[in-house]
C-alpha cells in the first residue's frame, strides 16, 4: 500500500490483528528484512511494515536526513490514526524511533531498539575509517547520511520515558562505550547482547528475537 506523507510516498504493508506494532528497517534495506519475524508476530499484533524514504518501494529524494525520516513516520502514524503503537526499529529505524519519541512525547508505548547508534563516532574506529575512505566521494544520500548523522545527545535520549529494550550484536559495528552511554541515559532500559551475532545477522530474515520481544511487549 502507498500513503502520501511529508511530501513523499511511503510504501507499507499491514498484517495481523491486535495491538499496533510498527517495524522500521535499517540503512539500505527494506521492509522485507522483517518478513520472517512479522509472520510470527502477526498472531499477536496489527503490524505496519514500512519502507523508509529512499528504500524499497517508497519515494527517493536527492538528499535525506533523519529529521526527514522522523517526520515521515510521525505523519504516517498520525494520518492512519495509530494510537500509541509499540515499535521495533533496527539501526536507522531505531534512530528514527528514538528521535520521534524525543520530539513527540508519548507517541509510542514500548520501544525495541535494535543496533542503534547516537553518532557516527560510535562506529568502531577501523570501521569508520573504512567508511570515510569508501564514501568520501559518494553521491549516494544513504552513504552520506551514515557519515554525518545521527547527532543524538544523552540528555535528549534520557527524556524518553518509556519501556525500552536495546538489542546489539556481540560483533556489532559500534564501540562498547556506546552501550555504557545507553545505560547511563536510560538506566531502567533492558539490554540484550546477541552472542555470536554481528550488527544485522540476528535480524535480517530471522525470527531469533521473537520470544524476547513477546516477553518484553507483553509484560
TrEMBL record:
Residues 19-121 form the AB hydrolase-1 domain. SUPFAM superfamilies: alpha/beta-Hydrolases (SSF53474). It holds the Pfam family Abhydrolase_1. The keyword Aminoacyl-tRNA synthetase does not apply. Keywords: Hydrolase. The keyword Thylakoid does not apply. InterPro entries: AB_hydrolase_1, AB_hydrolase_fold. This is Pimeloyl-ACP methyl ester carboxylesterase. It comes from Peptoniphilus stercorisuis.
Amino acid at each position: 500500500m502507498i500513503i502520501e506523507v511529508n511530501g513523499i510516498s511511503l510504501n507499507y504493508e499491514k498484517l495481523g490483528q491486535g495491538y499496533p506494532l510498527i517495524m522500521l528497517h535499517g540503512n539500505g534495506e527494506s521492509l522485507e528484512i522483517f518478513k520472517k519475524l512479522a509472520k510470527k508476530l502477526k498472531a499477536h499484533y496489527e503490524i505496519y511494515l514500512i519502507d523508509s524514504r529512499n528504500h524499497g518501494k517508497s519515494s527517493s529524494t536527492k538528499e535525506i536526513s533523519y529529521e526527514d525520516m522522523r517526520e515521515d513516520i510521525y505523519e504516517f502514524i498520525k494520518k492512519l490514526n495509530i494510537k500509541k503503537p509499540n515499535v521495533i526499529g533496527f539501526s536507522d529505524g531505531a534512530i528514527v524511533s528514538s528521535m520521534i519519541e524525543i520530539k513527540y512525547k508519548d507517541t509510542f508505548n514500548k520501544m525495541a531498539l535494535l543496533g542503534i547508534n547516537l553518532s557516527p563516532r560510535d562506529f568502531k574506529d577501523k570501521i569508520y575509517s573504512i567508511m570515510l575512505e569508501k564514501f568520501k566521494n559518494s553521491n549516494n544520500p544513504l552513504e552520506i547520511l551514515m557519515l554525518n548523522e545521527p547527532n543524538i545527545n544523552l540528555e535528549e535520549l534520557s527524556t524518553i520515558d518509556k519501556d525500552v529494550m536495546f538489542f546489539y550484536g556481540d560483533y556489532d559495528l559500534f564501540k562498547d562505550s556506546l552501550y555504557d552511554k545507553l545505560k547511563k541515559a536510560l538506566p531502567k532500559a533492558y539490554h540484550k547482547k546477541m552472542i555470536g551475532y554481528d550488527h544485522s545477522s540476528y535480524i535480517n530474515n530471522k525470527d531469533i528475537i521473537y520470544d524476547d520481544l513477546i516477553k518484553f511487549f507483553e509484560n
